[in-house]
């Protein structure tokens, strides 16, 4: 249960409103702390720091931080729109969770609320001379935080929304998803390879109560729920699969009918949403990465260099994929499907091969990238999927490239031992 709670908190912390709210709360607490710390201030300091100095700092922060926050929000929104229009509409799912942007905006808004509350309490006469000293030093800390945030923001704006930054962010998300799948194959459960043979006849289907994608599986919470109600769960739905209302989500094998509370607890462990998530869905990340290359290969843009860069990024990520199963499942009451390596290559490489057209460089780079995956893959099933993808890409190239000598160059790139 603790693992699922930490997992939910980690995902929640990547939402911008959470960080902004936390920093705003910290700003309020900082102002109130000045009244608690005031008794510790020596009496000889209270005459050295005047109220005018504190009022000036607070007024500057209040007037400037609201403007800076509004301007920064505009920049972030323009970057999201630009990346969605230029690269892929799904890029906003990652850029909106950029930690630097969130921290900077939260610092700016926190500084504004700190100064605003400080001004209100000052004019209300709630601070004595020693409390004003504490408020002065806290204001200096806030000013230092604002200066650091401004520098970070200026440096960060050099790449925000650009192709390199967006592609790197997507690649990082795909790499994290692939690593999670490799470290916890089958989501830490038993492998569900043959549903008809492995699922007992007594098991009954828990059907989707609405349409949506299966975003992820909270395995620890699902295991706890299964132990509490004494049942076994067979997850027949893959993460990222779209379900219609009424389709089987999982099969539950239990001696007695589940209570409504246990059923709702089970559904919370298998959230459905209108949007897919990168968290446990590496195929979705590979597809989004491929969308950048496909957009670059469109006739209106015609940028094969971007497609070549994406192919290299894809090879770097997928070479570390593993699709096995655990010898001793971490969650013994759960059965789940293995990650299919074919879906990774179909989502990542096949769209690029279809859109490469007569571009020899893209076809050749695709074959080289797949050959590299074959040699570097940690899992033989991943290498086999890469070979199958290379064969499909060669068939596609044979249709797109008109001249046999050029096709031979592409074919040579896929042969082992050839440079």
TrEMBL record:
Domain of life, source organism: Bacteria
- Transmembrane domains' residue ranges: 16-37, 57-83, 104-126, 132-155
Matches recorded under Pfam families: DUF2254
The answer on whether this UniProt entry bears the keyword Secreted reads no
Q: Which keywords does this chain's UniProt record carry?
A: Membrane, Transmembrane, Transmembrane helix
What's the protein here called?
DUF2254 domain-containing protein
């Amino acid at each position: 249960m603790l693992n699922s709670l930490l997992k939910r908190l980690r995902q929640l912390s990547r939402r911008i409103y959470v960080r902004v709210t936390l920093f705003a709360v910290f700003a309020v607490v900082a102002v109130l702390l000045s009244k608690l710390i005031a008794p510790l201030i020596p009496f000889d300091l209270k005459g050295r720091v005047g109220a005018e100095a504190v009022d000036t700092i607070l007024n500057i922060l209040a007037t400037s931080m609201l403007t800076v926050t509004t301007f920064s929000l505009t920049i972030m929104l323009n970057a999201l729109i630009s990346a969605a229009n230029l690269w892929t509409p799904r890029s906003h799912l990652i850029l909106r969770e950029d930690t630097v942007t969130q921290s900077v905006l939260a610092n700016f808004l926190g500084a504004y609320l700190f100064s605003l509350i400080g001004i209100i309490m000052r004019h209300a006469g709630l601070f004595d001379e020693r409390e004003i000293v504490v408020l002065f030093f806290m204001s200096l800390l806030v000013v230092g935080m604002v200066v650091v945030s401004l520098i970070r923001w200026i440096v960060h704006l050099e790449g925000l929304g650009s192709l390199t930054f967006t592609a790197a962010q997507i690649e990082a998300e795909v790499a994290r998803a692939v690593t999670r799948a490799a470290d916890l194959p089958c989501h830490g459960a038993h492998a569900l390879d043959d549903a008809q043979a492995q699922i007992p006849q007594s098991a009954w289907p828990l059907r989707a109560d609405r349409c949506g994608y299966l975003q992820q599986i909270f395995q620890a919470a699902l295991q706890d729920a299964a132990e509490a109600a004494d049942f076994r769960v067979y997850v027949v739905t893959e993460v990222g699969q779209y379900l219609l209302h009424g389709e089987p989500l999982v099969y539950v094998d239990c001696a007695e009918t589940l209570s409504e509370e246990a059923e709702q607890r089970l559904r919370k462990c298998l959230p459905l949403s209108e949007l897919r998530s990168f968290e446990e869905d590496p195929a979705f990340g590979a597809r989004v990465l491929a969308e950048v290359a496909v957009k670059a290969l469109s006739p209106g843009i015609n940028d094969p260099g971007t497609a070549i860069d994406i192919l290299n990024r894809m090879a770097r990520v997928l070479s570390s994929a593993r699709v096995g199963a655990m010898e001793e499942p971490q969650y013994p009451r759960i059965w789940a499907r293995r990650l299919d390596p074919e879906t990774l290559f179909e989502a990542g490489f096949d769209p690029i091969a279809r859109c490469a057209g007569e571009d020899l460089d893209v076809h050749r780079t695709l074959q080289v990238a797949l050959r590299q995956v074959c040699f570097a893959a940690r899992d033989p099933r991943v290498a086999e999927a890469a070979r199958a993808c290379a064969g499909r890409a060669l068939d596609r190239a044979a249709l797109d490239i008109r001249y046999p000598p050029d096709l031979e160059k592409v074919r040579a790139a896929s042969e082992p031992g050839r440079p």
